Amino acid sequence: MPVTRRAAIAVAIALPLMLADCGGGGSGSVTVPLPTPSPTPSPTPPPTVNLVLLLGQSNAVGWALTARLQNTVYNPAGYGVAPPRVKIWYKDSRANPDLAADDGQWQDYRAGANSDVNASPRDQFGPELSLAQRLVATTGNDVYIVKAAFGGTSLSPLAGTSPPGNWTDTNARIALDYYFRRAVRDLRAARPGVTIRFQGILWWQGESDAAVNIPATEYRNRLDNLRSYFDAAIRTEFGDAYRWVLVGLNFQQNPGEPVINAALCSTAAADPRIGYIPTLTYPRRVDLTAAQSAPLPVEADKHTSYIGQLAVGEKAAEMMTSAAPPVETCP
């Protein structure tokens, strides 16, 4: 017949006495201990993901062609077009040019398919490809990319610009309200309870300002205002444990670009939360040798090549994850 819990307890209490009585008058007794309860398992912490925001103009969009990733001599890390654990918030602004439309969505990142936020699609990628893959390897977390970059756009209202406008009057609000905030909303909906670690902002812009010789003080003041605008919104939700990474210019190689580069570098040198990546040593697409360009022919285009894009992304990931502040040496 089944043993009730009350009967089991009675046996546990009485058994030592019974054993003592069987000892032939001995003084010792045998105690049968009650079972030790199992410890309550600790709750599993929610997963953490890394979030990165890319801003700028055409080099931030990226003009590196995916076919050149086959060239493992100059892609020794073996970066591929479909890295695991990387997502991008994709808004196809060519299919629907209304940037205010709430039609973006998180997708598995595919270089050449959804890496160009200005096209529908175009076979090119930017610094996000190596940046995201390095972050996955360094942090062990999934990486989510928000890329709000618009070719031909200026920072200063004094410079000419392409649509949707300049970054001071128009694009900063578009990037924050129509891209970043919606992307965060959608990420929380897709992965409820996840911990989002905001890793940083990459800013690669200035070619349009350099083309019309915008002074360094004008550019830097506008950049300070733009950073304050984004920081005020992002710190409210994610704190300030993230870095800005400013990328230098090497496009037209005109007299205005060293001026903008000096403004970028001096901005970084004044704040330990900001890093600066010079790009003058990285070949543009037009500068590639036949061996570097393989398996494609060299094009007469001045955007940063795949070699430079991969290097910028790697350095940005290092700056965003390093505990030590970047050290800048400005010309």
If you had to describe this structure to a student in words, what would you say it looks like?
With 331 residues, the chain is an alpha/beta fold. Helix content is 36%, strand content 14%. Helix 7 (256-269) links the parallel strand 6 (243-247) and strand 7. Helix 6 packs across helix 7. The model is unreliable at 1-27 (pLDDT under 50).
Amount of beta strand: 5-15%
Q: Per the principal axes of the C-alpha atoms, what is the gross shape?
A: globular
- Main structural class: alpha/beta
Cα-to-Cα separation, first versus last residue: 91 Å
Structural Rg: 29 Å
The percent range for helix content is 25-40%
Main sheet attributes: strand count, strand direction, barrel closure: 7 strands, mixed
Please work out how many helical segments DSSP would assign.
Answer: 9
Question: Low-confidence stretches at least 5 residues in length (pLDDT < 50)?
Answer: 1-27
Task: Determine the mean pLDDT.
Answer: 89
Topology order in helix (H) and strand (E) letters: HEHEEHEHEHHEHEHH
Q: How would you concisely characterize the structure shown here?
A:
With 331 residues, the chain is an alpha/beta fold. The chain contains nine helices and seven strands.
Features:
331 residues, alpha/beta, 36% helix, disordered N terminus
How do the strands and helices of this protein lay out in sequence?
Elements: H1 5-21, E1 48-56, H2 58-61, E2 86-90, E3 105-108, H3 128-139, E4 142-149, H4 167-190, E5 195-204, H5 207-211, H6 216-238, E6 243-247, H7 256-269, E7 274-277, H8 290-293, H9 306-321
Parallel strand pairs: 1-4, 1-5, 2-4, 5-6, 6-7
Antiparallel strand pairs: 2-3
